[in-house]
Amino acid sequence: MGSGQHDPAAFLSQPCEHTRQVSAPAKKATDPQLWLRRALRMPYLWLLLFFLAPFLIILKISVAEPMIAQPPFSALLVWGAHGLQGIRATFENYSFLFRDGYYGIIVLSSLKMAAIGTVLCLLLGYPMAYFIARQPPRRRQMLLLAVILPFWISFLLRVYAWIGLLDNHGIINHALMSMGIIHKPLAMLYNDFAVYLGIVYSYLPFMILPLYSTLERLNVDLLDAAADLGARRWRAFVDVTLPLSMPGILGGCLLVFIPAVGEFTIPALLGGADTLMIGRVMWDEFFVSRDWPVASAVSVVLLLLLIAPILWFQHLQNREHEAGS
Amino acid sequence: MNEATPMVQIRGLSKHFDGVVAVNNVSLDIQRGELFAILGSSGCGKTTLLRMLAGFERPSSGQILIDGVDMTEAPPYERPVNLMFQSYALFPHMSVEGNVGYGLRKEGLPAAQIRERVAEMLALVKLDNLAARKPDKLSGGQQQRVALARALVKRPKLLLLDEPLAALDRKLREHTQFELANLQYQLGTTFVVVTHDQDEAMVLASRIAVMAEGRIAQVGTPAEVYEYPANRHVASFVGNINLIDGVVTDAGAGRATLRCEALNASLSVVCEDAPAAGAALCIAVRPEKITISRAAPEGQDRNVVKGVVRDLGYFGDQSLYRVRLSSGTVLQVSAQNLRRSASLTIEWDDEVYLSWEVASTIPLRS
């Protein structure tokens, strides 16, 4: 019989055996973790190559003096017969930016236009993401594909296509006038309206995707629980869905806001002469005025302005991560 | 409402999903202060029935009265009913206190009163020291108690519990089972527990409704359901059982004698209005009702068969035997190990007699 065959000594030694087995795999587990940590450093290498290096070049140009030369700025390092003779750097470009109110107004105007565009994307994207997340899984895939589909066509072409739609002689005005709804073409192109339209059109997928991913993970039992505890549908949305989709809202807003601030194509193609956006101003400084140092200084200031919300978002995420672990 | 009205009256309730019948013409009364269990395997319709009681699903036909008031069409937020979800469904962004107080805030109670009632409820479930924690910082057992407190704090007339113990490990489950039953007794609230776990239903409930294929197969106390199953399904779903098909050879005076080819034996069963000779009848016997012995059993009014022990499971407190009869049929037998002994009295391949009282034989008509 089974229990009679047990050697008491072997039985007593079992607990020790057990503890040894428990501690051994715990030690082993650090090895794959080490590999994981190494692999996680790869993106840093990427950032170093493709972000930090170009940024340092821009930073260098921003402290140079403009020159009529090729390239059109003074060198940072001054070389003599006996090697390096000195460093030539000036903060004149930065002080020019701050003295000249023009740039301040443009930065503020860019931030404002990007912010309004972001809010419009959010207002439009949230219901869409919510709707997609509530569909049966197969429909969801199709609808997500539809959201991403425009990326298959060049961004420039798509923005360009809007000119054909919005122009005084474009499709929309033509249709409205031939139907007799309006008698004079609506001014829809080359103004801020067209820029907002372009931003919403181009960046909506970047809002929908992070929103979708948080809404899709939302446990629907939570909404039932809220209803069970006395919340009507709208209340349950405000109390449960909205706060729990905050990471998606913040993520989507950053993904739209940051590129929209420096957007060049949309204001250049759809904006009017009075549309002030920093991307266009930088373009003009680089390629029209050929003042590379001032243009670089504008880029550096813009980057510093944009890093603030990113850091803030990261801080929030870390806090949430800590609370979650 | 007067005290005699059942807390829940379900009348002819059905629910169809795209032509599939999930709940089929269910009628059920649940009394005040009862701890009632709805037991069934997955897909039997018990969850749909629960969701209709909570107000998440609208019945296709039939009526639900709660405390005598028709609630068939009422939305969940207007019912005097609360549900403890199987997943607990705690709000992850709210503290324990926030979760428990949520329902009271939706009622619009003054803050001081909410604080008082939340504190009272947290003390009841012994979580008062964890009020400020977020749910993900709690163990499974603590989360379960938060979910319970959150559902109870609104003082519902009816508390629904969806598989309340399924997510807990075994040891905690046994402990929580008794705590839950005590709490129910203390509060006097009507509890309806939905579960697929027959042990849970047996230990917790004062009455059990066994569901199968959208219908109620039987309603009764745990002992009634176990000892007097209404049909084959209930008999085999609740506990272990040996089912034996036979043909009636003689019937009368509240008894029937059957010829059972599967056992190669004639058996007797106590059975009122037994079917006439020649009719088929299924009988059943629980493993613990069978006595196993090497010597021929004594005693009157017993069914006796002979077989060989093919399998033996020693569990300490009891042993399980699988005994093969000469016909090839295998019967399960369990025996309490009443005497302290390191050697077994019955071993593999022993020839044994199995016997049980005629009165312990269960006739099953369907």
Task: Please characterize this protein's 3D structure.
The complex is a heterodimer of chains A (325) and B (366). With 325 residues, chain A is mostly helical. Chain A has a domain at 111-275: MetI-like (MetI-like fold). In chain A, 74% of the residues lie in helices and 3% in strands. Chain A is built from 15 helices and 2 strands. Chain A has helices at 8-28, 30-40, 42-62, 92-99, 101-133, 137-148, 155-166, 171-178, 192-217, 220-228, 233-244, 246-261, 265-270, 278-288, 292-324; strands spanning 77-80, 83-87. Chain A has a two-stranded antiparallel ribbon. In chain A, strand 1 and strand 2 (83-87) form a beta hairpin. Chain A starts with 7 loop residues before the first helix and ends with a helix. Chain B is of the alpha+beta class and 366 residues long. Chain B folds into 2 domains: 8-237, 3-Layer(aba) Sandwich (Rossmann fold), CATH 3.40.50.300; 242-364, OB fold (Dihydrolipoamide Acetyltransferase, E2P). Chain B has 8 helices and 20 strands. Chain B has helices at 46-54, 96-107, 111-124, 140-152, 170-187, 198-204, 222-227, 232-237; strands at residues 8-17, 20-30, 35-39, 61-66, 69-70, 81-84, 158-162, 190-195, 207-212, 215-220, 242-252, 255-260, 265-270, 280-285, 291-293, 302-314, 318-325, 330-336, 351-357, 362-364. In chain B, helix 2 packs across helix 3, helix 2 packs parallel to helix 4 and helix 3 (111-124) crosses helix 4 (140-152). Chain B is globular, with a radius of gyration of 25 Å.
What is the fold-level CATH name, i.e. the topology of the largest domain in chain B?
A: Rossmann fold
- Distance N to C terminus of chain B: 39 Å
Describe the strand arrangement of the main beta sheet of chain A, using strand numbers.
1-2
What is the subunit organization of this protein?
heterodimer
Q: Please identify, by name, the CATH architecture of the domain at 111-275 in chain A.
A: Orthogonal Bundle
Total strand segments of chain B: 20
User: How much is the average pLDDT of chain B?
Assistant: 91
Shape of chain A: globular
Overall geometry of chain B comes to globular
Beta-strand residue percentage of chain B: 35-45%
User: How many strands, which pairing sense, and closed or not: the largest β-sheet of chain B?
Assistant: 6 strands, mixed
**Helical/strand content category of chain B:** alpha+beta
CATH homology group of the largest domain in chain B: P-loop containing nucleotide triphosphate hydrolases
Tally of discrete structural domains of chain B: 2
Supply the CATH architecture of the largest domain in chain B.
3-Layer(aba) Sandwich
